[in-house]
């Protein structure tokens, strides 16, 4: 079960899934108000964790290997704390953590959303493909110019293709609350589910120290595997730096 973060969608995992599909059933969720999914009344990350649980129920899944990136890692942590029995394993790549949710550099965008001023900006970006390679998601890539235009479209259009969608996305950012992740800490501190942490070292928002704090918090966590020079979206951009670790981890 692959869980993406804010402003991307299940397409983030396409290159990883292409390599893993021959050995495992792979499901990449579009979180509420992302990709092809509709918004929910509860726009919080806790509500997103509920959406993951509901998808598992709807697909009749038992235990899953859950993999999270960016805000999807926060969603995965909340899901793990609430439903440890539903996990065979947990893998976290660069993502929000207690004490860094949302990261300080993202705070101005959150405040813009809370003032109700973000939606028109999203509509403008989504309507101008020339902006996409230099848009707000570009910071997550080593080589934004190498991202195909159809992938940019898959990300930006659901977030800002219409004012209604942009307002839904604005609600999600406005609802980001550190308390949601803080509430998961006791559950994570008791989590013995095997946990793999794979972390890009060049991510400005989620430095390696946050991976180390996750390792110290979660009893089931093994060593932190560092992806040299990897940025936030390294699972999309550099799948070969994640897939072999997942294969070995799952085989064990």
UniProtKB/TrEMBL annotation:
The keyword Hydrolase applies. InterPro entries: AB_hydrolase_1, AB_hydrolase_fold, AB_hydrolase_sf. Residues 2-236 form the AB hydrolase-1 domain. Keywords: Hydrolase. One of its GO terms (molecular function) is hydrolase activity. It comes from the Bacteria. The keyword Signal does not apply. This is Alpha/beta hydrolase. It comes from Trebonia kvetii.
């Amino acid at each position: 079960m692959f869980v993406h973060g804010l402003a991307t969608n299940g397409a983030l995992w396409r290159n990883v899934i292409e390599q893993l599909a021959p050995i495992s059933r792979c499901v990449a969720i579009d979180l509420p108000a992302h990709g092809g999914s509709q918004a929910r009344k509860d726009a919080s990350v806790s509500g997103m964790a509920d959406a993951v649980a509901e998808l598992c129920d709807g697909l009749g899944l038992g235990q899953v290997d859950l993999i999270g990136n960016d805000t999807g890692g926060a969603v995965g942590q909340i899901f793990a704390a609430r439903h440890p029995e539903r996990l065979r394993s947990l893998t976290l790549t660069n993502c929000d953590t207690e004490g860094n949710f949302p990261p300080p550099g993202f705070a101005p965008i959150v405040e813009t959303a809370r003032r109700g001023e973000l939606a028109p900006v999203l509509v403008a970006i989504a309507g101008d493909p020339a902006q996409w390679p230099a848009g707000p998601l570009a910071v997550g890539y080593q080589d934004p110019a190498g991202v195909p235009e159809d992938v940019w479209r898959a990300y930006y259009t659901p977030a800002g293709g219409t004012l209604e969608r942009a307002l839904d996305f604005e609600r999600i950012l406005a609802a980001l609350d550190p308390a949601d992740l803080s509430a998961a800490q006791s559950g994570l501190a008791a989590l013995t589910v095997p946990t793999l942490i794979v972390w890009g070292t060049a991510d400005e928002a989620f430095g390696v120290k946050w991976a180390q704090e996750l390792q110290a918090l979660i009893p089931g966590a093994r060593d932190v595997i560092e992806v040299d020079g990897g940025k936030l979206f390294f699972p999309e951009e550099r799948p070969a730096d994640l897939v072999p670790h997942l294969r070995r981890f799952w085989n064990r």
